[in-house]
Amino acid sequence: MPRPRSLTPDHLAAAALAVIDRDGLPGLSMRTVAKELGMSTMGLYRYVADRDELEALVAERVLGAVDPAPPPAGPPWRDRVVVMVARLWAGVSEHPAAVPLTVSHRHRLPGLLRWSESVLGLLAEAGIEGERRVVALRGLIAYIVGAIQLEHLGSLAGAGPSTIAELPHERFPFMTEAARDAPGIDAEREFFGGLAVYLRGLDG
Questions:
Q1: Taking CA 12 as the corner, what is the angle to CA 26 and CA 101, rounded to the nearest 5 degrees?
Q2: Span 177-191, pLDDT tens digits
Q3: What's the gap between Cα 19 and its chain centre?
Q4: Are residues 110 and 155 in the same domain?
Q5: How far apart are CA 155 and CA 107, in angstroms?
Q6: 45 shares its domain with 71
Q7: Are 31 and 19 in contact (CB under 8 A)?
Q8: Within this chain, do residues 22 and 87 fall inside the same structural domain, yes or no?
Q9: Tell me: the pLDDT tens digits for 113-164?
Q10: What distance in Å separates the CA atoms of residue 31 and residue 44, rounded to the nearest whole number?
Q11: Model confidence over 70-115: pLDDT tens digits?
Q12: Would the CA dihedral through 55, 60, 65, 67 be positive or negative?
């Protein structure tokens, strides 16, 4: 008779997420998660088939914590979309190294599917239909993911504002000016400022 399972999917996801938060996505493996759980690597295979399944558990743990219910009716649709986007941004920002997993597994994550359903409903209320609604949703998700990666992972490229500010001004006048202004813009102001520009474009 097989031994009873003692670990839940949530236990596995929490351990894998702890590895990612500490060591980054490259540090995630069946071996490192098994070590985090205090078990053998082979023992971990009793619970998940492979790393892909483990990644999906992590992504759903991150996105499953995001409230997918649409805000109450009353405020303009754009304000309600901002609420939905803010929830997703806040939830995913807690674990920036796991962002690529939320993208690669997005089509099978109940948390993101429920969030997307609510946002599509708000876009429908705004009269945004058909292909335009599809593009609007994908654009919102891309904006959130891109903004988080720029905020948390951009420094890996070694081209932060201080480096750009040192470029020759005669060749890059606008880039050097932007680099001088950038330190005065915090992450929240930058995120919601860009989001406002995007949402205004949906009215066109």
A1: 40
A2: 988 888 888 889 999
A3: 17
A4: yes
A5: 29
A6: no
A7: no
A8: no
A9: 999 999 999 999 999 999 999 999 999 999 999 998 888 765 433 455 568 8
A10: 8
A11: 999 999 999 999 999 999 999 999 999 999 998 888 888 898 999 9
A12: positive
Q: Are 182 and 151 in contact (CB under 8 A)?
A: no
Report the predicted TM-score, pTM, of the whole model to 2 decimal places. Answer: 0.84
Q: What is the distance between the alpha carbons of residues 154 and 179, in angstroms, rounded to a whole number?
A: 14
**Radius of gyration in angstroms for the set of CA atoms belonging to the chain, rounded to a whole number:** 20
Query: Are 33 and 19 within 8 A, CB to CB?
Result: yes
Domain extent, residue 19, equals 9-61
The residue among 73, 131, 72, 64 whose CA lies nearest residue 98 is 64
Residues with Cβ within 8 Å of 107's Cβ and at least 6 positions away in sequence, in order, are none
* Buried b / exposed e along 11-49 (16+ C-beta atoms within 10 A): ebbebbbebbeeeeeeebebebbbebbebeeeebeebbe
Q: How many domains does the chain have?
A: 2
Whether residues 19 and 94 fall in one domain: no
In a domain, 81, yes or no: yes
